[in-house]
Amino acid sequence: MFFWSLVLIAVGIFSSFIYGRSRIKLNSKKQGTKSKSLPNYYAQYVLMWCLFPALIVYFSWAIFQEQIIQNIVISNFEYIEGAVYNEGLLLAEIRNVANNPSFADGKSIEIINAASHYSSLRQISQISFYTSIIIIMLLGALYASQKLKPDFHAQHTIEKYIQYILIFCSSVAIFTTIGIVFSLIFESLRFFAEVSIFEFLFSTEWYPFIPIREGQTAAEGSFGAVPIFAGTFLVMVVAMCVAAPLGLLTAIYLAEYASQRVRKIVKPLLEILAGIPTIVYGFFAFVSVAPFVKAFGQSIGIDASPTSALAAGMVMGVMIIPFISSLSDDVINSVPQSLREASLGIGANKAETIKKVILPAALPGIVGAFLLAISRAIGETMIVVVAAGTAPNLTGNPFENVTTVTVQIVVALIGDQEFDNPRTLSAFALGLVLFVITLFLNIIALQIVKRYRERYE
Amino acid sequence: MSNSKILANGVDVYYGSKQALFGISMDIKEKEVTALIGPSGCGKSTFLRCINRMNDLIEICKVSGSIKVDNQEIISEKTDVVSLRSKIGMVFQKPNPFPKSIFDNVAYGPTIHGLVDSKNELEEIVHSSLKKAGLFDEVKDRLNEPGTSLSGGQQQRLCIARAIAVNPEIILMDEPCSALDPIATAIIEELIDELRLNYTIIIVTHSMQQAARVSQKTCFFHLGELIETGETNKIFTNPDNTKTQDYITGRFG
Q1: Among the three residues A126, A152, A178, which one is the final residue of a domain in this structure?
Q2: Is A363 within a domain?
Q3: Nearest chain B residue (CA) to A351
Q4: pLDDT in tens, A182-223
Q5: How far apart are CA A368 and CA A455, in angstroms?
Q6: Would you call B59 and A339 a contact, using CB atoms and an 8 Å cutoff?
Q7: CATH for B4-248?
Q8: Chain A residues with beta carbon closer than 8 angstroms to that of B109
C-alpha cells in the first residue's frame, strides 16, 4: 500500500509544481508587474507545501498504523475464561489468519472473529490513509496558492525552508547519537542494578555464566571486567608497537623523501589497506599470523596458544598503519615550507631538519593521529574475535589468549537470548565503557589537532 | 679593487619547460651589499636561490651554467651543499623562526655544525649573534620564550641572528623587509649597513629606495635577464639602459 501512496505523492508534487508555475505567471500578467522572484521559486514553494505535510502523514501512518490496529484488535478480543494467552503469539496467529484464510481451519471462533476484525480495520486504515494524503496535499497547495502574488518574495521563503531542511537532516545524526548513548546508559543501569559497579570495574574474575533455568548447576556468575580491559590494552599496545613506527616512518618518507610520482602511487595503495574489511584481516591473522606466532613462541621456548594477543595485535597494527601514516603525512605536509628552508638554509641536512625542526613542529598533530589510531584499535572487533581468543586471561604475556571488550560484547549477544539477565546486559556496560574511552580519546585527539592547525594557519 | 666573492657565468634556470633565467653573469665583490631589483617574476629571487642551491628543493627546477663562490664551482653534482649553505646564510621574505625558544633558534646552526664544545661556548655564540643582529637588549631576559612570540621585525632580526650564528661569509636576503612596518624596516636597514663590514650581502628588494639606501652595487633584472649592473649611485642617477631608466622612474613594474 505504501508504494502506491508514494506514486500518489509524486503525482501530487509534480502537478503542484506545474500549477504553481502557471499560477504565478498568470497572476503577474493580471497585475501587469513582474514577480519579485523567478517563477520556479513560486513553483517550489507550492511543491514544498504539498510535499512536506504529505510526508508527515505518510510516515506517521507507517510508524503507528500497525501498532494502533493491533491494540484495538487485542482490546476487543473475547478471551476464553481459564485459558492462558501469550499476547505476541496470539497476535501472530490473528495476523496469519487475516493474511491467509486457509490458516483458519481448526482455529477457534474467537481467533477467526478477531482476524476479520483485523482485516476490516486495515481496510479502513488504508482508505483513510489515501484520503488524508490527498486532502492534506490539496490543503497545502491551497494554502500556498494564496501567497502566489507577484510581490511575495518566494525566493527568500524557499531559502528559509531549505535551511530548515538542512537543519533537520543534520539533527537526525545528532539525535541518533543521543539515542544510542541513552539506550547504552539505561541498559547499563539495568546491568548495574544486578552487578555492583565496583565489582565490574575492579574485580578480576570474569565468568559471565549464570543459571538460566532452575536446577542448572552453573556456578554463580562473576563480572569483573579487569581482565577484559587488560586484554584490550595489551592488544592495543601490540598494535601500536607495530603501527606507530611503521606508520610514522612511512609518513616521513612520503612527505619528505618520496618524489611526486612515488607519492601518487604509494598513498592510494596505503589507503587501500584501510579499505580491507576487518574480517579479512581477521582470518589473515588466524590462518597466517597466529600459527607463525605459535611456532616462533615455541622456538624461543614460550608455550604460545593458537590464538594470541600478539597475532591479533600485529595484524591490527597493520590495519591501522594507514590511519597513522595518512594523518601524519598531512600533518607533516602542513608544516610550513619556510621552516624547511630556514633549516636547510643554515646548512642542516635533511635528516637533521626532519628530526629537529619538522617533527617537533608536527608533534602535536602526530600525537593526535596516534590517539585516533588507538581509539580505532580498541574499538576494532573482527580481528580480535577471530585471532585473540575469548578467554578472559589477566596476563601481560602477549603469547597467551586474551579477550577484549568488543569480543566479550559479541560473545554476550550471540545466541537466542532475552535482555533480562546480567550476561547479556553486560554487553551494554562494556559498550558504555568502550564508548566513553573512545569518546575521550577522540575529543582529546581532535583538540590537539585543531590547536596544531591554528598555530600554522 | 676588492676580490670577487661570487662569480656567475651564463646561469640558465628552467622550471620544467619554462625558462626563468637567461644566461645571467655577475661578479659580486666581497664585503659589499649588492641589491637585486626588478619587477615581480623577473627571476631575481630565483637567482638568489641558485647561490645557496635552495632551488634543489623544487623538483622541477634545473640550473645550468657556472657559479663560483670563492673560486669553487657550486653548480655541480659534487658540491657539498651542506657546507656551502653553512657558508651562505639566508634570510627569507617572511620571518620564519622555528617553533622553539629564542635561544634554541640561534643555537640551532652552531649545534648541528658542531661548532661548539661546551654550553658556555654555545651561550657565547648565541649572545654575540643576537648582539650583532641588534636584538640582544630586547630579548636578553626572555631567551627561553618561543621565537614566534616576538614581533615581526624582531622575528626577522632573530632570523638574521640565526643565520650569522654559523659564521657565514655571505648572507642572502630575499625581500627581508616586505612583511615589516617602516620602523622595523629602518632598523633592519641599519643592521644591513653594519653587517656589511663583515659579510658579503646580496639583497632582493622591491623597494628602490631601499636598494638605494643600503647597497653599493645594484643589478636590474627584467624577464629573466640581467639588464644592467653597476654602482648603485650610477644606476639610480644615470643608468645606461632605457629599461632600467623606465623602471627606476616608475614607468613600469
Answers
A1: A152
A2: yes
A3: B112
A4: 999 998 998 888 888 888 888 888 877 765 555 555 556 788
A5: 15
A6: no
A7: 3.40.50.300
A8: 346-348
